[in-house]
């Protein structure tokens, strides 16, 4: 029993954490160490230690062993990944500056601080990419306020990989793929639904997270445009086939720190409520689910904790969506008492 616990807690063979001591890599808390919570098996075929093994081997013979870059993955690399592990896909959509990359970076930073939503970070194929997206938010970038590098159109579609494991050990690991793309591409697609089929991340998604930019909502001049952008995106994605009856869509208002401190907070809340009601009326019947969430991924003034509001979203991503299938409408008129019995039978008792 003790042996199982040892294997699960740290994948470094010589690390004292495995026997109840401190982290040999110097991480504090120990959960932020990329080796923590991993099994030796994890490191054989992927992750930080696996990457280091390949790096060492490649210095011996560069032609034989491919070197994993740790950068964000593209579609082909994700296909290779899926050959050996399933993953849950979270597609993050939004206009320029709406907060897509910051959400990914904040999610990563939150895991580096320790367990998040009863889960620990169990490795990533894209550590270098995540570090680059997080750098401007750190003090050593020399910036007075945290920031995020802009995503350019030429980067195309990027996937960021997170392997997470429940703190209730031993527990199976879950692999999440979070997407990122330049907001400009989404702006073009919502103006022209013929471009939607090129957004392959929509049909692949287990969750489509559509960002409503809180900074634009906070400004009376840009407010209507920000709401219109979300509405237009939903319409274009549905018309262009990117979203379907099976799609689970989460409209997430970002930068909520700017709204909850706003002098017109109450009026804005009323406008948002009316807007969401209209979205539900227009689009909910065409989707599996349409829900609304609020986050402040990274309040630059630090009044809201990092990744504020992201925890319930993350828990939702980890929970497989149960599709409730509506019973087929029975054709014809039901005349006999036996037929009518069908109408009186509770749905859950029907085969
Ligand atoms: N106040 C506040 N600002 C935020 C928050 N999240 C992100 N921002 C800021 O919003 C700006 C845009 O964020 P990005 O994550 O780069 O937006 P994006 O959607 O990736 O934009 P593109 O890459 O251009 O498509 C940055 O200056 C962030 O610092 C937040 O929770 N609160
Ligand atoms: Mg970006």
TrEMBL record:
Domain Double-GTPase positions: 89-318
SUPFAM superfamilies: P-loop containing nucleoside triphosphate hydrolases
Cited Gene3D superfamilies: P-loop containing nucleotide triphosphate hydrolases
Domain of life: Bacteria
Protein name, as recorded: Double-GTPase 2 domain-containing protein
Native source organism of the sequence: Methylobacterium iners
């Amino acid at each position: 029993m003790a042996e199982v616990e040892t294997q699960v807690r740290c994948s470094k063979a010589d690390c004292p954490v495995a026997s109840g001591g401190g982290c040999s890599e110097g991480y504090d808390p120990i959960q932020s160490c990329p080796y923590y919570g991993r099994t030796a098996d994890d490191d054989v075929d992927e992750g930080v230690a696996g990457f280091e093994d390949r790096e060492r081997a490649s210095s011996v013979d560069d032609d034989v062993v491919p070197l994993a870059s740790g950068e964000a993955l593209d579609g082909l690399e994700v296909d290779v990944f899926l050959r050996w592990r399933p993953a849950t896909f979270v597609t993050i959509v939004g206009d320029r500056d709406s907060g897509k990359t910051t959400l990914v970076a904040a999610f990563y930073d939150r895991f580096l601080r320790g367990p998040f939503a009863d889960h620990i970070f169990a490795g990533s194929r894209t550590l270098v990419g995540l570090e680059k997206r997080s750098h401007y938010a750190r003090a050593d970038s020399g910036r007075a306020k945290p920031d995020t590098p802009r995503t350019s159109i030429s980067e195309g579609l990027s996937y960021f990989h997170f392997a997470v494991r429940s703190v209730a050990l031993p527990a199976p690991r879950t692999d999440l793929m979070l997407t990122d793309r330049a907001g400009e591409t989404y702006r073009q697609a919502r103006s022209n639904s013929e471009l939607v089929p090129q957004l392959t991340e929509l049909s692949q998604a287990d969750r489509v997270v559509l960002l409503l930019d809180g900074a634009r909502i906070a400004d009376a001049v840009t407010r209507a445009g920000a709401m219109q952008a979300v509405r237009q995106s939903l319409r274009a994605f549905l018309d262009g086939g990117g979203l379907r009856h099976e799609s689970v869509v989460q409209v997430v208002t970002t930068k909520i720190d700017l709204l909850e401190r706003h002098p017109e907070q109450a009026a804005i809340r009323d406008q948002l409520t009316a807007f969401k009601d209209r979205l539900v009326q227009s689009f909910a019947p065409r989707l599996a689910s349409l829900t609304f969430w609020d986050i402040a991924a990274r309040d630059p003034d630090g009044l809201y904790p990092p990744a504020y509001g992201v925890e319930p979203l993350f828990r939702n991503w980890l929970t497989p969506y149960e599709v409730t299938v509506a019973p087929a409408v029975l054709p014809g008129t039901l005349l006999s008492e036996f037929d009518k019995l069908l109408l009186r039978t509770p749905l859950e008792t029907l085969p």
